[in-house]
Design brief:
single chain, alpha/beta, D-Maltodextrin-Binding Protein, domain 2, 3-stranded parallel beta sheet, 10 helices, 12 strands
Length: 295
């Protein structure tokens, strides 16, 4: 996985947007600044003839920088700051199901990438404004989101589930009138709760970890979030203090997100299908969820 901060052009096309232009400019500076100190000295010693030589060298550096930036540049990939086990920080790097899957896809695409973790609520705006090229963050495919961004084919079947304290009397979503429930800002779970839990107070958090901590501290009556994340938390960090309540609702799929009109969509769909056929998808799934996906 590439966790550096490479320049931001696309490797698969000549189009260069504002962000890409900035990356190219940085690349040119790198080339030109290498000769700048010598250029100053040469100008003093050699006069106009050396000025012509430096001008030619600068032109060559410009051409080299432009070629490198456009043809060897990498993709900027947005991911959530913490959505276990899909993406989360372990030591000094991000790991998880989404991270491993995108790493495999990028290898087939023949491109490097820069991960850019951010709060979930900022991911779709970042795609719309061209700040990022791709996003993997357990993003639910919805008709509303399709109006703003493009999606790959679904790569994970999910839903939403309520989590409460182990000793809570709450048995399901129909017992939440007058209660306070924690949700994550901008998620499908938050949207569903707003539409369906009219008599419930919703507390919104930019990071689901904070919502879970509030539940553990007894400051909210429950947390409503994506099923795999809830179950993973109960199994690991929950320490027997939390449990699920009721059935999963709103079965849905996660998709890889792109800016509208991205040429990457059909390429990524082709690779996803190939990964499911050759066993790579199953291997990554089993690594993070302990079982193979239901066919």
């Amino acid at each position: 996985m590439n966790t550096g901060v490479p320049p931001r052009g696309r490797a698969d096309g000549p189009s260069v947007g504002v962000g890409k232009f900035i990356a190219i400019r940085k690349k040119l500076c790198k080339h030109f600044c290498m000769i700048a100190p010598y250029a100053d000295l040469a100008l003093v010693r050699q006069g106009n003839n050396m000025k012509k030589l430096i001008k030619f060298a600068s032109t060559v550096a410009l051409a080299l920088g432009m070629t490198t930036a456009v043809h060897a540049a990498d993709l900027v990939v947005a991911t959530d700051t913490a959505f276990v086990p899909f993406e989360f920080k372990e030591g000094d790097k991000y790991v998880g199901f989404d991270i491993d899957m995108w790493d495999a896809i990028a290898k087939d695409l023949g491109t490097g990438y820069e991960l850019r973790p951010m709060d979930f609520a900022g991911i779709i705006p970042a795609l719309q404004t061209g700040q990022v090229d791709v996003a993997l963050a357990g993003i639910t495919i919805t008709d509303e989101r399709k109006q703003a961004i493009d999606f790959s084919d679904g790569y994970y079947d999910s839903g939403n589930l309520l989590m409460v304290a182990t000793d809570s009397p709450i048995k399901g979503l129909d017992e939440l009138a007058g209660k306070t429930i924690a949700v994550k800002t901008g998620t499908a779970a938050a949207g569903w709760a707003e539409q369906n839990l009219k008599d419930t107070t919703l507390r919104k958090f930019p990071n689901i970890d904070n919502a879970y901590l509030e539940l553990r501290a007894g400051n909210v009556d429950g947390a409503f979030h994506d099923t795999p994340n809830v179950l993973y938390y109960i199994k690991t960090a929950g320490n027997g203090q939390v449990r699920s309540a009721g059935d999963q609702v709103m079965a849905q799929q996660y998709g890889i997100a792109f800016p509208k009109g991205s040429e990457l969509v059909p390429k990524v769909n082709e690779i996803l299908a190939k990964m499911k056929e050759d066993g790579r998808y199953d291997a990554i799934y089993e690594k993070w969820f302990g079982t193979k996906p239901v066919k």
